[in-house]
Design brief:
The chain is α+β, with helices and mostly antiparallel strands. Helix content is 53%, strand content 11%.
Length: 584
C-alpha cells in the first residue's frame, strides 16, 4: 500500500480544525479554553470529553479516549488511521500525492472475498430461469428490480452443493467456507447452508458482506427465515441492518427509526423513508448501542405491534434513555409491523404517524397499564410504584412534577406522599448503584506508582514543548520501562527531524507504532495540560534518578549476597555506599 509522508499528514491535519470535525459528530459546548461534549466512546451521561482547539487534541476524563483529529475519526468511524486521514482530506477538498489502497482488513480479507463471490452467485441465480418463481414472489411483496438491486437480493438454488463447488473451484478451502457458515458438514457429507431460499445480504457498518438471511418463497414446512450463525466476521450484536446505507440520511434528519425486521427497513427505505435501521430481533446489545451513539441522533422506536414488540419497545427504550438518548415511539394500529402497515395503508399514512410520535415516557405510562385492572387496589399500587421507579431515571424536574400531579389527580392520592415515595426510591437506587460499582485499586506499590507518574509526566512535558526534549537529552535520563524509553526515543527523533514539537502531529507520527501508541494516549489522558513548570520537570527527573539508584542498590545487594570473592564483595559494598551518598 502506498504511504503518505508525515509532512503530508501534518498538512492535512493543519487544514482540519479538530473542533469543527468533532462538532460534526457530537455537539460541543465552549467552556473556558476548551470545548466539551458527551464522549461517544463509552456510556457517557454528562460531557466528559474535552477538546482543545489550541493543542488540536481531545481527551475523555472518564474512559481515557484521547488523540488528535485523525484518531477521533478513526475510532468514531471504526476505520484505520490512514483511512481517517483520507476521509479528512476528502472533507477539506485536499488531493493526496499518492493513491491509497484502502482495502478490507487483511486478516479477514479472504472471508470477505468468499462472501462477495457468494453474493454475486445468488444475484446471478435470481436472473436465470431457475429464479422465475422467486422473482414473482419478490414482486408480489412490492420489491421491484430497483429494490432488488439496491439491497442485493439473490437466490440460493435447490441443489445442495452448488455454492460449495463454486468456491472450492476458486481454491478456497473447506475450512474457510465453513468458517463463514456457507456450508454444513454432517456425517462427512457437505451441504450448502442455504438451499432454495431468497437471499438478503447482511452487511457490517462499513458495507462488507458478513452474512445472509434466507427466506422461503413457496409453501414449505421449513422455518420461514434462516440467518447466518455467528462466525469470524458475522456477529449479530455488532451490526444493525442498513447502517452503512442509512447513515448519511440519519445524520441529515438527526433521527433514526429503529424497526425489528430487515423487511420493515427495506419497505420504508424504498418508499423514501431512508433513515431507518433494523435490529433483526427484539433486543439491543451494547455494541449496537455504541453504533447508535455514533449517529448523534434521536431514536424513534417502531417495533412490531404484538406483545413481544411492545415489551421490546419498553425495555429497549429504558436502556436507551439510561444511555442519554432522546427516545420517541411510533404505534401503528391495525397491522403487525411497518412492512404490513405500509403495504396496506401507504407510506403517507406512515409518515403521518412519524410526524406525531409519542414521547417514550408517555408510551411507558400506557404500557405499564397493560394487563392491570386499575380498579383493583393491588394492580393500581403496582402501577403507581412502576411509574415512580421509571421517574427515578428522569432528570426533567417539570416532567417529574407534572407526572406526580397527574397521578395524584387521577387516582385521588396525596401529592406529597408520592413525592416522598419518589425521593425514597431515588435514594435506594443510588445506594444500589454505589454498592454494585467496584473500583479496582492499582496493584503497584506507592514507590512504583510515584516512579511511573514521574515517567509519564516527563514524557508529557516532552510531547508539549521542545525545550523539555533538550533537557531530557542533556541529563541522560534512563527510563526503566521499555515502552517509555521507546516513546522518549520517538520524541527525540521527531524533534530532531522537525526542529520542534507539535503534540497533534506527534500523535500522527506515533500512531504507526502499535506497541507503544496506546501508552502515548494513556499518558495524554492522565496528565494535566494546564501548566508546564520547568522546576516540576526537574523534580520528576530527580524522582527517576532516585528510583534508578534504588533499583541499582537493590541489585548490588543481591550480588553482594551471592558473591564469594572477598575483594569483589568490598568493591560492591563501596559502590552501594557511594550510591547511598549520592556521589554517583
Amino acid at each position: 500500500m502506498a504511504l503518505l509522508s508525515q509532512e503530508e499528514i501534518k498538512n492535512i491535519r493543519m487544514h482540519a480544525n479538530i473542533v469543527d470535525v468533532i462538532s460534526s459528530y457530537i455537539p460541543l459546548t465552549h467552556k473556558g479554553k476548551n470545548y466539551f461534549g458527551v464522549c461517544p466512546f463509552h456510556e457517557d451521561h454528562s460531557p466528559s470529553m474535552s477538546v482543545s482547539e489550541d493543542k488540536q487534541i481531545y481527551k475523555c476524563f472518564s474512559c481515557g479516549a484521547a488523540g488528535n483529529v485523525f484518531t477521533f475519526v478513526q475510532n468514531y468511524e471504526n476505520i484505520s488511521f490512514i483511512e481517517a486521514v483520507d476521509l479528512i482530506a476528502k472533507r477539506y477538498g485536499l488531493t493526496l500525492s499518492t493513491h491509497l489502497e484502502l482495502g478490507k482488513p487483511d486478516k479477514n480479507g479472504k472471508y470477505y472475498e468468499i462472501m462477495d463471490i457468494a453474493l454475486k452467485f445468488f444475484q446471478n441465480n435470481l436472473k436465470t430461469e431457475f429464479g422465475h418463481q422467486a422473482r414473482d414472489y419478490l414482486l408480489s411483496r412490492g420489491l421491484d428490480n430497483d429494490a432488488i438491486k439496491e439491497f442485493g437480493v439473490g437466490l440460493a438454488l435447490a441443489s445442495d452443493q452448488t455454492l460449495y463447488k463454486l468456491l472450492t473451484g476458486k481454491k478456497y478451502t473447506l475450512q474457510d467456507i465453513e468458517n463463514v457458515a456457507l456450508i454444513n458438514v454432517i456425517d462427512d457429507k457437505i451441504y450448502d447452508n442455504f438451499i432454495n431460499r431468497v437471499m438478503f445480504p447482511l452487511q457490517d457498518p462499513k458495507g462488507n458482506i458478513i452474512g445472509f438471511s434466507g427466506r422461503v418463497y413457496y409453501e414449505s414446512s421449513a422455518p420461514k427465515y434462516l440467518n447466518t450463525r455467528e462466525t469470524i466476521i458475522f456477529k449479530k450484536r455488532q451490526m444493525l441492518f442498513n447502517y452503512h446505507r442509512a447513515r448519511p440520511y440519519i445524520r441529515n434528519e438527526k433521527a433514526v427509526i429503529l424497526v425489528e425486521g430487515y423487511m420493515d427497513a427495506i419497505r420504508l427505505y424504498i418508499n423514501g423513508v431512508k433513515n431507518v435501521l433494523a435490529i433483526m430481533g427484539t433486543s439491543l446489545a451494547k455494541e449496537q448501542i455504541s453504533l447508535l451513539k455514533k449517529l448523534n441522533a434521536k431514536v424513534i422506536l417502531c417495533l412490531d405491534n404484538d406483545d413481544a414488540g411492545q415489551k421490546a419497545i419498553y425495555e429497549i427504550g429504558q436502556t436507551l434513555k439510561k444511555d442519554g438518548f432522546n427516545v420517541e415511539v411510533i404505534k401503528l394500529s391495525g397491522q403487525k409491523d411497518p412492512d404490513e402497515y405500509v403495504i396496506k395503508n401507504g407510506i403517507e399514512a406512515f409518515i403521518k404517524n412519524l410526524k406525531e410520535p409519542l414521547k417514550f415516557f408517555d408510551f411507558s405510562l400506557n404500557y405499564l397499564k397493560q394487563n392491570k385492572n386499575l380498579n383493583e387496589t393491588v394492580d393500581l399500587a403496582n402501577y403507581i410504584n412502576e411509574v415512580l421507579m421509571d421517574l427515578t431515571k428522569e432528570n426533567d424536574d417539570i416532567l417529574i412534577d407534572l407526572t406526580l400531579k397527574r397521578l395524584a389527580g387521577d387516582y385521588n392520592l396525596e401529592y406529597d406522599m408520592l413525592k416522598n415515595k419518589l425521593a425514597s426510591l431515588k435514594v435506594n437506587v443510588k445506594n444500589i448503584e454505589e454498592i454494585t460499582t467496584v473500583v479496582e485499586e492499582p496493584k503497584k506499590t506507592l514507590k512504583n506508582k510515584k516512579y511511573m507518574i514521574a515517567c509519564q509526566k516527563i514524557l508529557f512535558y516532552m510531547m508539549n514543548e521542545a525545550k523539555y526534549v533538550r533537557i531530557y537529552q542533556n541529563n541522560l535520563v534512563f527510563l526503566d520501562d521499555l515502552n517509555y524509553r521507546e516513546i522518549a526515543k520517538a520524541l527525540i527523533y521527531y524533534y530532531e527531524s522537525n526542529k520542534d514539537i507539535n503534540l497533534a502531529d506527534f500523535l500522527s507520527y506515533a500512531s504507526t507504532n502499535e506497541r507503544f501508541y496506546p501508552e502515548v494516549l494513556d499518558i495524554l489522558n492522565k496528565c494535566s495540560e494546564e501548566s508546564l513548570e520547568e522546576e516540576e520537570f526537574f523534580d520528576y527527573l530527580k524522582t527517576i534518578n532516585i528510583g534508578n539508584k534504588q533499583k541499582t542498590i537493590k541489585e548490588l545487594k543481591q550480588s553482594l549476597k551471592e558473591e564469594l570473592d572477598k575483594n569483589k564483595k568490598i568493591e560492591i559494598a563501596m559502590q552501594i555506599a557511594e550510591l547511598k551518598r549520592g556521589s554517583v
